[in-house]
Amino acid sequence: HHTFAIAVLCISMWEALHFTCDFTLSEIDKYILFFKISKIISSCSVKDDVIIQTMKRCWKENHYLLCPHTAVAVSYHYKNPPSHQRRCFLATASAAKFQEVLKQAGLPLEIPEKISALETKQTQKISMQKSANWESILREKIKLIQMRRH
């Protein structure tokens, strides 16, 4: 019953966002959504030294460099091993973006070729006024970029 209600609520929220870029929730819908989400999503905070330790451990065990933000999620996983659940962590950024943290952790600085290639590219910008239709400007810019690629 509640699962169906959540599915319907999520679909209606997505449709409202998609078609009107806006939505509001009733107090009961807020409660239902919060109740369901809080059963499956948790949060934590992690001190800087634990982030460094997590990055080191992940590198040692998997030869994978974590960014500090992703290390927060992985540290939760290390402290709370799953009993029967599968977990998925989405890396929020390349570790190469955090060179100082990698140095602090004594981890290798591996800058992927695609990232180092960005250093030689010309910076481009568009000035946009506060009152401008930013969505329209960005959509037009994306179309121009796509046309250049084809």
TrEMBL record:
It comes from Erpetoichthys calabaricus (Rope fish). Pfam families: THR4_C. GO terms for molecular function: pyridoxal phosphate binding. Residues 1-16 form the signal peptide. SUPFAM superfamilies: Tryptophan synthase beta subunit-like PLP-dependent enzymes (SSF53686). Keywords: Signal. This is Uncharacterized protein. The lineage of its organism: Eukaryota, Metazoa, Chordata, Craniata, Vertebrata. GO terms for biological process: 2-oxobutyrate biosynthetic process; serine family amino acid catabolic process.
